[in-house]
Specification:
By secondary structure, this protein is of the alpha/beta class. The chain contains ten helices and 15 strands.
Amino acid sequence: MKWKKPAKQICLLLAAALLCCLLLPGCSAGAGRAVQAPAPSPAPTATPEPAPTPEPQPEVTEIRFSATGDNLIHNGIYDQAARRTDGNGYDFLPCYEHVRAFYEDYDVNWINQETLLTDRLAPSTYPCFSTPGQMGRDLYSLGFRVFSLSNNHTYDKGADGLAATGEFWDTMPQDALTCGLYAGPEDYGNITVQTVKGVTIAYLAYTEHTNGIPTPQNAPVNVIYTSETDLMRQQIEQARGLADFVVVSLHWGVEGSHTIADSQRQTAQQLADWGADLILGTHPHVVRGTEWLTAADGRRAFVAYSLGNFLNAQSTPDTMIGAVLGCVLRKTTMPDGEVITEVADPVLYPVINHYEPHYANIRLYWLSDYTAELAQSHGVRGEYPAFSLEYIQRVLRDNINEYQPVAWLERQAG
């Protein structure tokens, strides 16, 4: 049979066929299972850069602070306040209607309350004042919280007057603070300190004199005079350690004079060196200039030598012109814990005390709202016909122009 191969050739053919089966897919010993390629190794994950730690920032707190001059309450004022209630009490708020919005913008409002406030004693006028307590309640409703009580009229009503005014202040809310009166030497270390938004402010007040009236016998409280310099220094240095800011009021100077005495400048510098940050002058009933002082420790202190009058019924042109100080008390706490304090941005806002002939309708206006027509109708013109808007502007330019909002003057003049 021709188709039969020899045995050797058959073996070679079988070997070749087996080799082909091994080389072809599906012909291996693992036939029936797909052969998978090895999984690729995962790509290495990049390690993210750590976020930079923010640098600690200083913590800054600002207190908007205002200081108002002599609230001097004559009989014309409280008589009109009584008529508004038909004799059933007193209403002083209309006197302040045109200025009240200003105080809403401030964290702290300070005022020199020139006359004793009491609910017990009968009201009285110059030369020995006593004012219905409703005045204090109305001032509180306007936003005033710090009342300086050390002035030349503090002893006007003797020991009983001091007791009566103490009784009044005891009825006021706890955040109505007073300064300048002490229950004897053992009380001199009891300094008034106020905390606002975490910032502490110490208040001290001194007077040059009390109209020749000595401290009354059996008086429950007393003033400290500006001649008691050792005591003043002791208190101011103590206050420096108690508070972030030290505010000192001085009731001093010659009434009716715009002149700053050299002795006043020297005293102000001493107070700054001892620790005062803000020095508020009252008593002359007219405005005086302002000044920056450099204290012994390098701080800058600001002094307003006289804020002039606020509400009053005096009778001369310059006593109709006052100024309210607005400023910022700024506290900066550095990341390392260092605390830096500064008085910043002082501005004097002129205020006009206006009344009609015979002291009728006594009220206050900001200079920005005061018109030439109002000035022409002022009751003070009966004795001083030169009083006018231009007169007011001249007094201000001569005395406080450096911190006077000049735009107000330009707008009024133009």
